[in-house]
Amino acid sequence: MAETISDQFKEAVERYQAGEEVTALIPVFQEVCDRSPKSSAAWTCLAWLYLLNDSANAAYKAAQKAVKLNPQDAQARINLALAMLDSGQSGVRQHIEQAMQLIMIDSEVRDEINQSIEDGFKRKPEWKSLQRVKNWLFES
């Protein structure tokens, strides 16, 4: 029986959480995005993987799609802001402000973003842009 796109996505997330290398997962998430181009969650994950892989321009494109599909997704907004910072673009503030609003009204989203940031530091300890975003979101 053919694997559903939902199953493929869940399996890829589990592989990521188990610590699999980012470079091995990028093609998997790219395939999920190709098969389900309206999945904001898949685009958000792909953008995150590109950011961890120092591919800011690819991350920017994926994060733009994620935000366009779901403007109320704090992680997608943060990924877009990170991609913009890592590629030297301006316009970061609006995405940070939107993410701040989203995490202020929902403690579950706030906890998820905190976990994501900590995961980012485990996988990429010297990530200056992530430190800036963390400071903006949680130390203001």
Q: Would you spell out the secondary-structure blueprint of this structure?
A:
Blueprint: H1 5-17, H2 22-35, H3 40-52, H4 56-69, H5 74-86, H6 92-105, H7 107-123, H8 128-138
Characteristics:
mainly alpha, 8 helices, 0% strand, Serine Threonine Protein Phosphatase 5, Tetratricopeptide repeat, globular, 140 residues
Based on helices, strands and strand pairing, what is the structural class? mainly alpha
Briefly note the CATH topology name: Serine Threonine Protein Phosphatase 5, Tetratricopeptide repeat
CATH architectural name: Alpha Horseshoe
Total number of distinct structural domains: 1
Question: Total helix count?
Answer: 8
Mean pLDDT: 95
Task: Please report the first level of CATH classification, the CATH class.
Answer: Mainly Alpha
Sheet with most strands: none
Strand content: under 5%
Globular, elongated, flat, extended or rod-shaped: what is the shape? Answer: globular
Task: Give the N-to-C terminal Cα separation.
Answer: 51 Å
What is the alpha-carbon Rg in Å? Answer: 14 Å
